[in-house]
Each structure stands twice: as structure tokens, then as C-alpha cells.
Design brief:
The structure is a homodimer of 355-residue chains.
Chain A: E1 27-32, E2 38-47, H1 54-67, E3 75-81, E4 90-97, H2 100-109, H3 111-117, E5 127-136, E6 140-144, E7 159-164, H4 172-176, E8 205-209, E9 215-222, H5 228-251, E10 257-266, E11 272-282, H6 285-294, H7 296-312, E12 319-326, E13 332-336, E14 350-353
Antiparallel strand pairs in A: 1-7, 2-4, 2-5, 3-4, 3-10, 5-13, 6-12, 8-13, 8-14, 9-11, 9-12, 10-11
Helix pairs in contact in A: 2-3, 5-7, 6-7
């Protein structure tokens, strides 16, 4: 850990860790062997198609031909979302950078940029979204249930996992975010999400620049290499509990959840892997913390995880992890011909390109 | 200096300081006695009026009644701009915060926010701008020719000046920006400014979210308390040289200058002080560096300053200083009923509120 980059502040806000607390299960976080002051994730989607559909193929072709370039992402993945926040199927990709300069060059000058900004995108008969997460290091945290399997941000250059002890208590997520030591990370809009007036994003581009402390969480589950007993336990026992928890978040604006997507990783042939992620955008992480600390649906997930960790010890092979970004203001969320209720179009304020 | 907040990175990009260089004149930078990861400046303007005009009074009243509130700015100033970048007179204000949370709360919830967002602003018969600079600490630098007089960002809470030796050579400005140790700070658009297609911002709100590394410089001059000889030298000899330098920047897109405003501080009675600032927005600081290193108009300013510093020594009482912000992407520049050519409307991409 000595040679990895990290930020710490002398606390003006007390940590949440109870005095003398020691976690029951080992956990890891991501670090980099060089300064990474900015972390970037581009979340891209095509709405209203299944993975094999023509629009999905065109979308993925446009991406694939733009990824392996000098300023391209360090890692990227493809998912299927059977039902997005509007009930439509979607094909989704995420791409990661650890250089704001490389990302901006790609964003302005790549072949993909030309494809994305083309007026033709409004005529494709599908919707598209582009949710660009540009996050200072001090506003992020990650946690992994084991140190070896790497996915998401963990596939960027010169990253490694380090063991932590900031886990296993309520508030640990916040404590892991360096800025939380000196900043309450509150939304200026409060925790409860109030949807804006109805907006119809069909037939046009709508851009939402996010309010301060809008938070993005990607929570992942990997059981591709699990032994049959643990895989069965995940699919039959843990996954239904996760689903009920996500249902609760989606259905309750008081949790701060603006929207949530359930994603299944696709392999290079477009086939589903035994690997999934929840991608959620929150107005304020305090609502998620409240749910985690008090709600039965989270207690069920949490107890199951701890019990299986203790039961299998180092043999535990269902891997869970997440990455969280509590964003500065004005991250750009763009929607092209999307269905009403897609993404941040739910809250506004909206803008549209001017000519 | 031990107890002040600062960020340093192990360099992967060489510093510009020549080997063994020692500056001829003492200089100071600003630090804070607590972590200040985000620095904020709101630049606000009313276009097309003189200081005494009704619209200027209404604008300043709206501001004054919103400043002394819990989340209000830590410091603010008022200026007159005899000719803005479109040739019109303007009354300008700047307000500073060192808390992103306080700023966002003010920005969303203050009385001023209600005034600013009101549709009535489009009917006032004047233009308005709001250029909101939200800058990570690692992307800023400041320099002062003496340690005691405080203005601009230097009036924020728990700030102090510390003596530096990163001054007096070409490239020192870049070397003082902490991130420059590991990041080239290049614009994805290159150095030379290419104006967008003509856009008419009259009669509507136009918002530009700035490209990565758009830079804002406020360069200040203070001779209010100068002895007559030095005041006369400033007004008769140095100021004309500064003016010619600024003319050059304004007239040459190759310097990276998008626009530039010459501002005179007003006192509490609305009368001009012997204190001025240049406020300039640049696409890439490399163009400014090139001008500073090579152009005759800068050499004239630079030589004059060094000579007067050596001539008067500690008696030198014409104070010069600047603050520079090399911004992350998507800082918000908003224009309401402004004249064509105002501010970042020159470059786009533009958006406008959607309903």
C-alpha cells in the first residue's frame, strides 16, 4: 500500500465506524500505482432492442471500432438489460478511463464521437443514452469480497487491490470516500427524489447536467467460476434477496434512487455470463445508507453474505463488489430519442442543443 | 507552511524551472489552513448598462440581498467594465466560495437563484451572464507581488499567503498548478480558438458547458494606496503596456484567448477604485505561455515589473497578482438575452433549456 496513490483528509466530520470495531470478513479496495486524480466511466445504452437486433449490432460495431485507439478506454464491457427503468430492453456498455485528458480527446475526436453526434441518431428508430461519469478520486470508493477477480474500474491500468478494514459496519461506504472526512456529501435537493414535470425525450436530444452529489453505484455479482453448491445458493437464495432489495429502492423515492438498471454481462459472442451488475443513480447516498442500516430487504442480503463468508471462508467463490461515485456538479447525462422516464430526464433541469 | 493545505504529485512531466534558477523578486501564493479541495468563483454580469443605470441597480440589489446568508459567498466584489467583448458597457460581480456544498445550496436555494432563473430576466431589456467556475484545488494557482493586500480568492476564510520560489521564469505559472506535474493540461480542441457558427443569444438563455482545460485567469492591479511617484508610473507607463498586451491577446485566436474583459473595481458607493482586473477565458494556457515567453508586448510588461521591483524593493506599492483556474470539463457558462459574441457563446457547443 505504501506505493499506491490515495487521498486522506484530517477529519472534521466523525467517522461512522464504531469504536474498536473489527470487521468479520476480509474486504479489498482498489488503488493505483500512480496518481489517478480523475476516474471516468462512460455508460452507453441503446434502448428498445434485444442483443441480437440490428440496432444493437450497429451500436456495438460503432463502439468496437472506436475502442482500440490511442485515447480509447482502458477497459470496457457489454451488458444486456432485460428491462430498463422504462420497461424496455436495452444493450448497455461501460468504458473506463483514468486520464481526463485521454477521455476528453476520445470524447471530442474519436470516430465514435462522430457517430454519437450525428443527426442520424434521431432517425434510427431506437433510443440512446450516454451517461458520462467524471469523478475526482476523493469522491469515489470501491469494495471487493476477494482480491483477485478484476472487473469494472478494476481493469484499468496499474490498478491493484489492497486489504481494508473500513467494512462491515453501517456507514463504511461513506467512510471509504475520502472527501467524506470533511464534506457531508449532501444533495442541495435533499434525499427524496421529486420528479420534474413530465418531459417527452422522444424525437430529440435531452441533456441533464447533474446536481452536486448525484451518486452512481455499480454493484456487481460474479459466480461464473463458482462451484455448483455456491452457484446454486447464489441463484436460488441470494439473488432473489438482492432482487427484492433493488425492487424496494426502485419503488421508493425516499431512498434517493432516481433510477436503477439490472445488467447481465455478455461475453464476446453476445452470450450472457454468470455475472451481473446493478447500476443505480441516486440523488443522495444518505437514502441508501438508511435503507442499508434499517430495511429488512437489506438485512436479508447482508446476513446471507456474512453467513456464507464465514461458512466457506477462503473457498467463498461468489464474488460481490461495488464502485461508488459521489459526483461533483454538472456531469453530463445525454438522451437521444429515449422513452419518457429514461435516466436523469426524470428530474431535470433539461437542456437541448441550440442552433 | 507546514499547517496549510496543498497538493503535490511526484512529477511524470518535467518542471519548466531552469536548473538552479533563483527568482529575482519575492512572490507569494495563497494557501488555506484547512483542506479546500474545491474553489469556486461565480462571475455575474449585466450587459448594456452603466453602473448608475436602473438595470445595474436592480442586478446589484438582487445580489446584495442574497449574499449575507448562511451558504452565501465568503467574499464578493463589484466592477465596471467599460467595454465588454462585444463593445458594450457592463456591471460585473464576482463571488467566491471554498465549499462546493455551500455554493450548491446557494445556487439552488437562494433568493438570487429565484431571481436568476425567473423568465422575467428575458424581458428586462438587458443581457446577463453567469460564469460559474468550480475548480479542484489541484487545477489552480495564484501569485501576489506582496503578501499583505488581499483581494479575490484571497478574501476567503482561513486563507493566508506563503512565500514561493516558483516564479520569475517562463513556465512558472504552469509549474505552480499542482496537476501540471502529471497532466499536460491540453485542450482537446487545440490551442487556437475556432469560433463556432454564428449564434444569436438575444431573446433566450444559452448555456455552454466548457471543454476540458478551459482556463480562467483574473489578473489584478492595485495602486489605491500607492505613493504618487509609483501611482504615476503605473498609470503613465505600466498600464499602457498592459493594455497593449491585452489588445494582442484579444485580437489573436492563436493565443488561445476566447474573450477578455477589463474591469475596474467599484467601491461601496459605486465609485471606481484605483484597482483593476483583467478577466480572460482561454481555451488552453499554452497560447498564453507562448505569448509570455516570446511576444514583445509581454516582454515590455515583464521588464517593467522586474525593474520597478528592484528599484523600490520592499517600498514597491503597486501590487500585481493573479489567480488561474484550468478547469475540468462542463463548467457552466450561462447567457440570458446577451449580444452576439458574448463570452463562451463564441465557441459552443450550446444548449438551451428544454421544456
Amino acid at each position: 500500500m505504501e506505493n499506491t496513490y490515495h487521498i486522506t483528509y484530517e477529519r472534521s466530520i466523525p467517522e461512522r465506524r464504531p469504536d474498536g470495531f473489527q470487521p468479520k470478513n476480509a474486504r479489498w479496495s482498489l488503488r493505483w500505482r500512480r496518481p489517478t486524480p480523475t476516474l471516468i466511466a462512460e455508460w452507453l445504452g441503446v434502448q428498445g432492442v434485444e442483443p441480437g437486433g440490428a440496432a444493437a449490432r450497429d451500436f456495438l460495431t460503432a463502439l468496437r471500432t472506436s475502442m482500440d485507439v490511442p485515447d480509447g478506454p482502458e477497459a470496457w464491457e457489454v451488458f444486456f438489460c432485460p428491462q430498463d427503468e422504462t420497461g424496455r430492453p436495452a444493450v448497455v456498455a461501460v468504458a473506463y478511463w483514468t486520464s481526463a485528458t485521454a477521455h476528453a480527446a476520445w470524447s471530442c475526436g474519436s470516430r465514435w464521437a462522430g457517430w454519437w453526434h450525428s443527426p442520424a441518431r434521431l432517425e434510427d428508430g431506437v433510443g440512446y443514452w450516454r451517461e458520462t461519469i467524471v469523478c475526482p478520486y476523493e469522491r469515489h470508493e470501491t469494495i471487493y469480497s476477494q482480491p483477485h477477480y478484476r472487473i469494472g474500474l478494476g481493469r484499468t491500468r496499474e490498478s491493484e487491490t489492497v486489504e481494508i478494514t473500513t467494512n462491515g459496519y453501517f456507514g463504511a461506504m461513506r467512510d471509504r470516500i475520502p472527501l467524506s472526512a470533511i464534506d457531508p456529501l449532501e444533495s442541495p435537493l435533499g434525499v427524496e427524489v421529486v420528479q420534474g414535470p413530465p418531459l417527452d425525450p422522444r424525437g430529440r436530444r435531452i441533456i441533464v447536467h447533474s446536481p452536486l452529489n448525484t451518486s452512481v453505484i455499480r454493484s456487481g455479482q460474479f459466480w461464473h467460476d463458482s462451484e455448483p453448491e455456491q452457484a446454486a445458493d447464489y441463484e436460488d437464495a441470494l439473488r432473489p434477496k438482492l432482487d427484492r432489495g433493488m425492487d424496494h429502492l426502485e419503488e421508493h423515492a425516499s431512498t434517493g434512487t432516481i433510477f436503477l438498471r439490472r445488467l447481465t454481462n455478455l461475453d464476446e459472442h453476445g452470450e450472457p455470463r454468470r455475472e451481473t451488475s446493478i447500476y443505480a443513480v441516486l440523488q443522495d447516498i444518505a437514502g441508501l445508507e438508511e435503507w442499508a442500516a434499517r430495511h429488512a430487504t437489506h438485512k436479508a442480503i447482508y446476513k446471507h453474505q456474512i453467513a456464507k463468508g464465514l461458512e466457506y471462508g477462503p473457498r467463498r467463490d461468489v464474488i460481490t463488489w461495488h464502485e461508488v461515485f459521489v459526483l461533483p456538479e454538472n456531469n453530463r447525462f445525454e438522451y437521444v430519442n429515449c422513452a419518457p422516464g429514461t435516466g436523469l430526464t426524470r428530474i431535470g433541469p433539461w437542456t437541448t442543443p441550440a442552433a
